[in-house]
Amino acid sequence: MKIVLVSRIDEADALRYTASLARELEGLGHDVALEEGTAAHLGEEGISFEEIDGDLVVVVGGDGSVLLTVHQMKKQVPVLGINWGEVGFLADLEPDEAGAFFAAHRDGFDVERRMRVSLSVNGMPLGDALNEGLVVTDRPAKMLRFGVYVDGTPAERFRADGLLVSTPTGSTAYAMSAGGPIVDPQIEGFLLVPLAPYMLSSRPHLISTRRNLEITLETEKPAHLVIDGQSTFELEKEATLTVKKSDQPALFVHTGKPFFEKVNRKLRNL
């Protein structure tokens, strides 16, 4: 297999582990390349995120490293995360599990598709999110006014500090911290979670991807859209955000660990 390795670069131990893993994978007969940022810190030649193409991308890092990789890849390639972070919910393997996994899957692996959301503002495509798009004011303590329209019908209007437009995958990230539900990633839906809404009646919504979803920003206050914590866009006054299911889902290697087992182990310490 052709495998590309990506490592977080702020941890020397993670870089050393990545270099060791590269040698181990080459010993198993795989064609191994390094992402250019990782390669530069190891004194090697590498390839850019945009050039990544092959059978597998292995990310040594936390959820942020995985999100960065998915966000930057021009073409989605199956991703396998090796946890070198805090929770590491998108990283299925621990470092000491990787060797046995690769030895047992020399000829291939199963792939799980995770939906992403495509976000456009006033008709202009801005990008796809694996976890969430965040709309938030750039002035602390200033509230925004939102309108939610489903198939053209007004579904909700509320004032809040911000709004998360999350995927089921992102339901265990920022959306969960903001009071949203944990959603099975096999469900395809748009999860809307208001941030500190003014009214108690403003609750999270889970909306089918088969619906046409638009969100209006009805405010004179400056605001921004942040996609997966990677890209930030300034929003015009009275902007309309269109939310659609992306035609390029993220691809993850299925390691055999059930989703709700991960929830219990990583979030509930059961």
UniProtKB/TrEMBL annotation:
GO biological process, alphabetically ordered: NAD+ metabolic process; NADP+ biosynthetic process
GO molecular-function term, one example from the UniProt record: NAD+ kinase activity
Similarity-based family: Belongs to the NAD kinase family.
Binding site residues for NAD(+): 63-64, 131-132, 142, 159, 161, 172-177, 196, 230
Main subcellular localisation: cytoplasm
Name of this chain's protein: NAD kinase
Entry function: Involved in the regulation of the intracellular balance of NAD and NADP, and is a key enzyme in the biosynthesis of NADP. Catalyzes specifically the phosphorylation on 2'-hydroxyl of the adenosine moiety of NAD to yield NADP.
Source organism of the structure: Methanoculleus sediminis
Cofactors (names): a divalent metal cation
Residues at the active site: D63 (proton acceptor)
GO cellular component, one term: cytoplasm
Reactions that this protein is recorded to catalyse: NAD(+) + ATP = ADP + NADP(+) + H(+)
Pfam families the record matches: NAD_kinase, NAD_kinase_C
Localization (cell): Cytoplasm
Enzyme category, top tier: transferase
Protein's UniProt keywords contain Nucleotide-binding: yes
HAMAP family: NAD_kinase
EC number: 2.7.1.23
Keywords: ATP-binding, Cytoplasm, Kinase, NAD, NADP, Nucleotide-binding, Transferase
